[in-house]
TrEMBL record:
One Pfam family linked to the record: SoxD
Protein name, entry field: Sarcosine oxidase subunit delta
GO biological process: tetrahydrofolate metabolic process
Organism name: Billgrantia pellis
Any GO MF annotation of the entry: sarcosine oxidase activity
InterPro entries the record matches: SoxD, SoxD_sf
Amino acid sequence: MFHIYCPYCEELREEEEFHPKGQAHIERPKDPEACSDEEWGDYLFFRDNPRGIHHELWVHAVGCRKFFNATRNTVTYEILETYKMGEQPTITAESLANREALGSVQVAGGGQQTVGASNASVASVKGVKA
Ligand SMILES: [Zn+2]
């Protein structure tokens, strides 16, 4: 069992209380009528599936029932941070690439980034305050 930090409840809660809801930060087109079929189809159906850092929408379904965002490493399943709706992540693939350049992040065999791999089994997540 691992725990996820809810930024609204401000505490670590059991994983079973949460549900993932897909990719975060997807903006609905301001004027859907002006979209081409391809643009509308991209908005509705196509999502990123990166190897590494991914920003995801989660809901604390059996808790406060609020939606929030999480930055997760899809290779290690480690949740690196959670943050409230409307906030921006502090950890991005670009920021990790910069840290990697400074030597503070280990590079896995496939050249992918891993962060805090020693704690991968227990994801302890710090909340992010804007
Ligand atoms: Zn909550």
